[in-house]
Design a protein that fits this description.
By secondary structure, the protein is α+β, with helices and mostly antiparallel strands. The chain has 4 domains: 34-113, no CATH class; 134-234, PAS domain (Beta-Lactamase, 2-Layer Sandwich); 260-294 and 303-398, GAF domain (Beta-Lactamase, 2-Layer Sandwich), CATH 3.30.450.40; 401-558, Alpha-Beta Plaits. It has 15 helices and 20 strands. Strand 13 (332-336) and strand 14 form a beta hairpin. The chain is elongated. This is Sensor domain-containing diguanylate cyclase. One of its GO terms (molecular function) is catalytic activity. Residues 190-242 form the PAC domain.
């Protein structure tokens, strides 16, 4: 603070003083707060600003007096807080000793400047702290492109001292050495991702932001920036992307299995989608044969049968490999000639119910961890699908089959018979209506348990030797039917003879020699195109069965050929009506 005054005692300015300003005049004219204290440090003169300060907060003056009284020479500068209407202000006072032993005090509002200095200091400290605690590392390169500054923590496993003077390009991966880098960039760089080489040689992904530095002549003199190591985030993101991709593929396969009503079609589509999801040349889905063990649960070995496949032809894998897959644990990898394959068993509630097998050509990429994890996920869902389909099949069998004999029940038999005779190209076929002879005596003498044994034996007899298109059924009680597709009268007679012969082998189940078990069979041959309905066909076969009973039981009878009933005209109907 420059003071334009002398230590003279003149009370007023004049030309005679040579332009010197007296303390009294200076106090009055000073733009800030000013005071003149006498030798006893009492206020001898004060300008308006100083008086306002004393009115607002008189506590600052004793502090100044203590300061002045303790000074043996020129006191210099002193800052004191003053409470004003604007809040706390910091006033810096300059104390000047006067010849009479008093002091001239000139004040300056130092509040804003102090705040600015404090803010700048805090900002620098804050920046320093943030740089030190941040996972980012700050750096600066010089005109030669080498590091001239690296934050004290260092970077990429290197200490800061090991990087100073080093060319940043020596940190680049070999395949990226010629790519642009932020360390020598001539333009601003914002959030650029690049891969560098850590101190241990492992790749590290960093996100860099940088600003180029230019000299007064516009020449490039380096760059300054920060890098953030995001290797873990990138790896996690890549893993998450792989997981999401697996979930998407699995979801697609699951929807395929769930949305297809036909079991064989669902598994065929699942085999196709599994091969595509794994970039495989082919896929096979096996299912555990009914009655084989559960594998690993104390049961017997699991026997597999192929239920769906897709892709290139696969040589015979052999029973040994399938046995390893179904009865072992975990994923099985093997080679078959020039083919590499992996297989895994499918389970439901810890019971093996099938296997999944995929393969690639030998010169393809080997199976990696992603392939194996996706394979395991698919196998889990195929296992669930096998269990779901088995449950559906059980429900369908329960709804379609007679619970005791396993034959088609009445409803299902007639539905399928309707479908069969409605096909115009079905050719001649035959319906056999079968009724047990002397069955009531078995129940009366030996009980219903023995009767059930007889009915089961009849069910076995009717299903033995039947072709895929034939329909054996139980209508209820001791009445059975057998539909023989594409069968003429001669073949129907042969089947009837076979049934009668088979029944004679069940004579030991009869109630007594006087009441031997037997069959009465009625045969009705159906010829397509004549308009015969299922009801009419059944009635003809039923009538023929009663004819067989009348002939002494244990026989068969042939129903007369179907004769269509001519439609009556309106005049015939009128003539047939009784007269009123």
């Amino acid at each position: 603070m420059d003071l334009l005054l002398t230590t003279g005692t003149s009370a007023s300015p004049s030309a005679a003083t040579g332009g010197q300003t007296s303390p009294v005049t200076l106090v009055a004219l000073y733009p800030g707060p000013a005071l003149r204290l006498d030798p006893a440090l009492a206020i001898a003169e004060a300008n308006a600003e100083a008086e306002d300060m004393m009115d607002s907060d008189p506590r600052w003056l004793p502090d100044l007096r203590s300061w002045l009284s303790a000074s043996s020479v020129a006191p210099g500068l002193r800052s004191v807080p003053v409470e004003s209407l604007r809040g706390i202000m910091i006033v810096e006072w300059a104390g000047v000793p006067l010849p009479d032993g008093g002091f001239l005090l000139l004040g300056r509002d130092d509040t804003l400047e102090r705040q600015l200095r404090h803010t700048l200091t805090e900002s620098r400290r804050r920046y320093k702290d943030l740089v030190e605690v941040s996972s980012d590392f700050a750096w600066e390169t010089g005109p030669d492109g080498t590091f001239v500054f690296v934050s004290h923590k260092g970077a990429l496993g290197y200490p800061a001292d090991a990087l100073i003077g080093r060319d940043p390009r020596s940190l680049a991966l070999e395949e990226a050495e010629d790519l642009p880098m932020p360390f020598d960039s001539r333009r601003p760089v914002d959030q650029t991702e690049l891969w560098l080489k850590g101190a241990d040689g492992t790749p590290a992904c960093v996100v860099a932001s940088a600003l180029p530095l230019f000299g007064q002549q516009g020449d490039w003199i380096g760059a300054r920036g920060v890098c953030r190591d995001v290797t873990e985030q990138v790896l996690r993101s890549n893993e998450l992307a792989r997981i999401r991709n697996r979930e998407r593929l699995l979801g697609h396969i699951v929807h395929t299995l769930r949305d297809r009503l036909d079991a064989a079609e669902a598994l065929a589509v699942a085999a196709t989608e599994t091969a595509r999801a794994l970039s495989a040349d082919g896929c096979r889905i096996y299912r555990a044969e009914e009655g084989t063990g559960g594998g690993g649960q104390g049961g017997g070995r699991v026997a597999l049968s192929l239920v769906a496949e897709f892709g290139a032809e696969l040589p015979d894998v052999g029973a040994a490999l399938l046995d390893r897959i179904a009865n072992g644990e975990g994923l099985v990898a093997d080679r078959l000639g020039d083919i590499q394959l992996i297989g895994e068993r499918t389970e439901y509630r810890q019971a093996v119910n099938g296997a999944l097998l995929v393969w690639r050509a030998g010169d393809s990429e080997p199976w990696d961890d992603d392939d194996r994890q996706l394979m395991s996920g698919v196998a889990d869902h195929i296992g669930i699908a096998h269990a779901h389909l088995a449950y559906q099949e059980r429900l369908r069998r329960l709804s379609e089959r007679d619970g005791l004999t396993g034959l088609f029940n009445r409803r299902t038999f007639f539905e399928r018979l309707e479908e069969s005779i409605s096909r115009p190209d079905s050719g001649p076929s035959a319906l056999l209506y079968v009724d047990l002879d002397n069955f009531k005596a078995v129940n009366d003498l030996h009980g219903h348990q023995q009767g059930d044994t007889v009915l089961k034996a009849i069910g076995t007899l009717l299903t033995t030797g039947v072709r895929p298109g034939d329909l054996p059924g139980r209508l209820g009680g001791d009445e059975f039917v057998l539909w023989l597709g594409r069968t003429d009268e001669a073949k129907a007679r042969i089947v009837a003879e076979r049934l009668l012969k088979g029944m004679r082998e069940l004579a030991h189940l009869s109630a007594s020699p006087e009441k031997p078990l037997g069959l009465s069979i009625g045969i009705a041959v159906h010829t397509p195109g004549r308009g015969e309905s299922v009801r009419e066909l059944t009635d003809r076969a039923d009538a023929a069965m009663y004819d067989a009973k009348k002939s002494g039981k244990g026989h068969y009878a042939l129903a007369p050929a179907y004769q269509a009933v001519p439609e009556m005209s309106s005049s015939d109907v009128s003539a047939a009506e009784p007269a009123p």
